[in-house]
Amino acid sequence: MKKNTKSFFQGGLGQLTIPLIAIALLVLFNLIRDPGFFEIGITHNNDGNIVLAGNLISIINGASELAILAMGMTLVTAACGGQDISVGAAAAIAGSTFVKILKSAPEINGGIVVLAFLCACIVAMLFGAFNGTLVAVFKIQPMIATLILYTCGRSIAYWINGGATPTISSPIISALGSFIPGIPVPTPVLIVVCVTILFKLLFHFTSLEIFTQSVGINQSAARLNGINATFIKLLSFIILGVCVAIAGSIGVSRLGLINHETLLIDVEMDTILAVAIGGNSLGGGKFKISGSIIGAYVIQMLTTTLYAMKVSSTDVKAYKAIVIVLLVVIGSPVIKAKFGKLMEKVRGRMQESAAKGA
Amino acid sequence: MEKTKKIYNKFQSILLSVSQWIGSLTDTQLLMTITIFIFFAMYLVAMATLGGGFLHAQQVFDMLNDNASLIIVSCGLTIVMIGGGIDISVGAVTSLVVMSCVLYLNNGGSLVGSILLALGIGLAFGLVHGFLISYLEIQPFIVTLAGMFFARGMTTILSVNPQKAAHEGLAKLRDTKIVIPWLGYVAKNGNLVPARVEIGVVVALLCLIVVFILLRYLRLGRNFYAMGGNQQSALMLGINVKRTRFLSYLISGLLSGISGYVFMMHTGAGNATNAAGMEMNAIASSIIGGTLLTGGVGNVAGTFFGTMTLTTIKKIVVASGLNDPWWQSITTGGMLCFFILLQSVVLGKRAKKKAL
């Protein structure tokens, strides 16, 4: 037991060190700035339900879409060594499909919502398969291949919407976007938990995780070992498609309307950032989904902190950039190596002095 | 009978020489040739079917006037991409330069000072990006993404509201147009409309020529290709890879600064949404022009034609009456898809041939 803890502290948390340090620093900063920042209150919302409220809840709630997308993006990054920059646009398309189906139904009930979500899933999976085919079969770099959908995705959503921003109002949709009556936790958070469990189960019962890693580390070696690299890459994009559909549907349900320009705007950049902050290499290979999830919450906590400091929503980006650069500089290989050397030197001196003392 | 055979033989020999010529081209040249060919074909079709504006030389000059800053930015991006990196901050830096120069001029700055400011901002971004990417070995996407966030955020911190430049010198600079003789046309009311280009276009073409010479004839330019093609071999050839990579981002930053100034000369106003999406347009231009994101392959002349092809598609969509707002980007996306697939197929075929 003692040995375990010792090796734990010596080896650190591996790739999770940076995101966890970031979270700890942010929490500390917020506690110093305003001790009541993380207070969780219990209030009644407009429908008379008992719900949890507070900054912590809004952070966890607000990062839901980002966390879901980051999980899918981690797989794509690991398998293909590149990122999908079209997730925001694809989410807009999925959201449009979701609303289109709901709008065409005479009345909105549970079955229709499920049907609409399934349709959104299929559409997003098709677009994911399109991206995946370009990447896996035609061997185009992911960023270039997804640039196509990035360019025209939001316009396609606009086209599906018929040049308008349709609204939907239904108790089911608002329950999906905010609170289910009787449950004080926001629904998007519950959905994130479900998706995480699904990913865990997927990795537990299939060999997807190890296959993805081996394709990302060395594709030809993986192929020689009987792994269908093309299929794994395609599959990662299709799984990302499902994540995109979930995120898009949550985004639509939150607002009760679909705006092709503003739905999950700039989310692709935040998603890639979440993956990188989580300690995953953007060049593919080994990955940890948990890192990406923590990365997503780091980003959202940073944003919320900045909002709480009365920074206007357009200016947030500049401060975010500074923190990001600081984080990646700390995590950069050169700095890590230098720090490691420094630590060794210090340890060596300490041992010397200890030897002298003895 | 003999005559047809003769013609057939001649035709065959022409085909053979063409195929030999294609075979002798490097990947860069081949991709560029395809783009130039498609650009001219597209433009000729537009001239034949749509007529109107496409028949006047001014159409081309308008395209240049509107896209001078995009061309400059794409040049810088091409260098970075040939070196195997990526710089997605260029559009945001352009926007920041426009806003800060406009504010500087409105608060009593001089023209020379504003030019220095523009170059300074560009260089500063290039310096930081280059240092972080090449000396601290951080992934270029993340660094330039942070740069993009920072530049966009700084732009809105400077001013959320659009700022109009009220500087006489700048107004003069903006309204100075170079008349190109012989290429004007006679309008319907009988007046001669001369063909005109803005100063920005001259700057853009100058940048294009400088970058072309740099990439083609100077040692630094060849080093970019070597580094992008295979970093390990470049290192073994004695190329200072770190410094070369640093310089590629520095040049890209400098060109973004110049592009910002040109943008300001074109619009004369600073706005937080200026140059929105320019980075992706620049990447698209480079790709259509035959630059590969993997590095080592690319040409700045191709990039120029890439930009023109992108613009021509948009003009054709507008001219052919597809007025719904979504058609422009959907056709652009389709065209991009076509070019990317074409490149993939062509390069794949060549690679197979070489292997045989």
In short:
The complex is a heterodimer of chains A (358) and B (356). With 358 residues, chain A is an all-alpha fold.
Could you explain the architecture of this structure?
The complex is a heterodimer of chains A (358) and B (356). By secondary structure, chain A is mainly α. Chain A is 72% helix and 2% strand. Chain A is built from 16 helices and two strands. Chain A has helices spanning 2-11, 17-33, 55-62, 64-80, 87-104, 110-136, 142-160, 171-177, 187-205, 208-217, 219-224, 229-255, 267-277, 289-308, 316-331, 333-357; strands at 41-44, 50-53. In chain A, strands 1-2 form a two-stranded antiparallel ribbon. In chain A, helix 6 runs antiparallel to helix 12, helix 8 crosses helix 12 (229-255) and helix 10 (208-217) crosses helix 12. The longest helix of chain A is centred in the middle third of the chain and has 27 residues, at 110-136. Chain A is globular and about 85 Å long. Chain B is mainly alpha-helical and 356 residues long. Chain B has a domain at 67-275 and 292-299. Chain B has 14 helices and four strands. In chain B, strands 1-4 form a two-stranded antiparallel ribbon. Chain B has a two-stranded antiparallel ribbon with strand order 2-3. The longest helix of chain B is centred in the last third of the chain and has 29 residues, at 327-355. The radius of gyration of chain B is 22 Å and the shape is globular.
